[in-house]
Amino acid sequence: MSSTETQIRQATPPSSPHDSDTALFLRAAWGQDTERAPLWLMRQAGRYLPEYLAIKAKSSFWEMVRTPELAAEVSLQPLRRFPLDAAIIFSDIMTPLPALGIEIAFNPGPVVANPIRTKAQIEALRRPEAEEIAPFLAKAIGLTRAELSARNIPVIGFGGAPLTLATYLIQGSGSKEYEDFRAFLRLEPAATHALLGKLTELSIDYLKLQIEAGARAIQLFDSWAGLHDWATYREFALPYNRAIFQALAGLGVPRIYLAVGASHLYPVIAELPCEVVSVDWRLPLNHIRSHFPNRTLQGNLDPSVLLASPEVITHEAHQVLQAGLGGAHIFNLGHGVIRTTPLEHVAHLAEVVRAFDRRS
Amino acid sequence: MSSTETQIRQATPPSSPHDSDTALFLRAAWGQDTERAPLWLMRQAGRYLPEYLAIKAKSSFWEMVRTPELAAEVSLQPLRRFPLDAAIIFSDIMTPLPALGIEIAFNPGPVVANPIRTKAQIEALRRPEAEEIAPFLAKAIGLTRAELSARNIPVIGFGGAPLTLATYLIQGSGSKEYEDFRAFLRLEPAATHALLGKLTELSIDYLKLQIEAGARAIQLFDSWAGLHDWATYREFALPYNRAIFQALAGLGVPRIYLAVGASHLYPVIAELPCEVVSVDWRLPLNHIRSHFPNRTLQGNLDPSVLLASPEVITHEAHQVLQAGLGGAHIFNLGHGVIRTTPLEHVAHLAEVVRAFDRRS
């Protein structure tokens, strides 16, 4: 292993991660070429589940996120239906931002009451104490973990990458191409860096809080990184993502990085110190692996495949599983579960993935 | 030149395209490493222009497209303000679709009254005669050409690629990730192919009509190709795009292919028989050129740069111009002009591009 690779993958993962007692998901995340691919799905706790919709009918999105019992319940729902290998705590990448003094609504996507468009707004953001940021989330992770520990199923914590959080804060809401953000970044690079620095500090505290509460892995969602060119990513994303992952090194949790529509950035993303790279469906895993030697790949079934027939699901899942051979692989979608996904299709996918022997 | 390259680039471009009498845009499109990069901008005839908004205030989008005098006027507006090297006819990729019997509104993006979701709907599409498809467009091209011929500025015709047209027809309206379309394509591949076949026939007639009316180049917009993985693009996009370009071979017009967010597809796109590949801002032109030897590259300034300061515009445009050296280059944006772009920024960009000597 070169010195770069040593930095990128933690030299000493904790407590014998290759033991067969260790959860399959964690073994794969730490780099083991496991006998079968562990499975979880982005947005597995979400609107395609009737039991989720039943809770959502009675509570706002913020109530669900901020009430530990509700967040834990929603996180556990998919694990009761499907034989998944990990839970992800129910929350949102925007969850820590109100602690900075920013008002955010969900409608259903995030809407920032006062989009950040001036240096003064960035300077005015408060620096919260770590324990203020999301105490409800720590409790939700504890409750979820308590219910899953007997089944040896780990809970994944997560946060948004600074560039992606800044994208929403400056644009103000979802958008196809986030032009206002992309313009701000070029007009006010110093202010953008100041914002990204504050978001990085916040994210480090926020993710450490989740690890202390029992999250066994951390995923950093850089959903909008793919909008940018190399130079922009290298200046405005790479150093902040690196700082976050470095701050989480040695804490005993594998670090997962996700970007969507970002295959043009893989050579730069490869510089990030993380164990797992989560990729979308645009390229087959066997074409991606050369960019990330000695890393675990997570992905990358097109979520729209789950709207198709069971036969198509079997075929496409096998393509992903085959392409994932030759290194550690965590099976997932390339992006989140689509709201209209039939439940029985998720069950079918789980069967297909579990039945695929990676050593035969 | 290999036989593949001969097929890909027309062996005998018409009427001495390298003559200094030939318009700069056409010389570059035919592969000449010109003394300066010709300039035009996608959506240069559009909502950032007050004179466009004045017409739009009095006419619906369809009225503007279907009234030759209005379409010509709008096409000419940016050429009166800025020293551009080509006009693009004002229209929309959805323009030929009503001829199939499909009702489309603009609100402001295209909305299909009855999204195509069944085989029966696809079978029921009518096959129009070529002259029925868009007679107004032929007239608009003629009027635009008449005004520009004295200035030796060519008019570009265009259409949507079949996969991108099918994306709208099946999804029904704009969407972030077009999941319903992606699912339909996997559930009903035969029906999707039937639709793509009909759209290809229509597109060939439609684009030939524009050439007969005086369009000097044709751009095929495959705006949503980048959503798909290699295998999907190869099956559902490549053969139809190839058929269209082959049908336009030998007609004396360079063929331009545009996809956005599609850098993962460049090795497949390289198989298309076209002279020019228009690329977005995600990778520098000098990194893209190796995928497309002997082709002209068109692009690729990030349109959000035009919202930034003149200093930033100068810097970023120079980056693009420098990266475009070493082969034929047509300067353009990586996607369309953003509605809030200041007019003086477009004027400034034109100055910067015109002042850049590619031979110094």
Give the count of helical stretches of chain A.
17
Question: Terminal Cα separation of chain A, in Å?
Answer: 28 Å
Tell me the strand percentage band of chain A: 5-15%
* Total beta strand runs of chain A: 9
CATH architectural grouping of chain A:
Alpha-Beta Barrel
**Portion of residues in helices of chain A?**
40-55%
Which segments of chain A are poorly predicted (pLDDT under 50) over 5 or more consecutive residues?
A: 1-6
Main structural class of chain A: alpha/beta
Calculate the mean pLDDT score of chain A and round it.
94
Shape of chain A: globular
Main sheet characteristics of chain A? 7 strands, parallel
3D structure, described in words:
Two copies of one chain form a homodimer. Chain A is of the alpha/beta class and 360 residues long. Chain A has a single domain (24-355), classed as TIM Barrel. Helix content of chain A is 44%, strand content 11%. The first copy, chain A, contains 17 helices and nine strands. In chain A, strands 1-4-5-6-7-8-9 form a seven-stranded parallel β-sheet. Chain A has a two-stranded antiparallel sheet with strand order 2-3. In chain A, helix 14 (266-269) links the parallel strand 6 (255-259) and strand 7 (276-278). The interface between A and B is medium-sized, with 34 and 34 residues.
Topology record:
Two copies of one chain form a homodimer.
Chain A: H1 3-8, H2 24-29, H3 50-58, H4 61-66, H5 68-81, E1 87-88, E2 104-106, E3 110-112, H6 119-123, H7 130-133, H8 135-148, E4 155-160, H9 162-171, H10 179-187, H11 189-212, E5 217-222, H12 230-236, H13 238-247, E6 255-259, H14 266-269, E7 276-278, H15 285-288, E8 296-301, H16 310-323, E9 329-333, H17 343-355
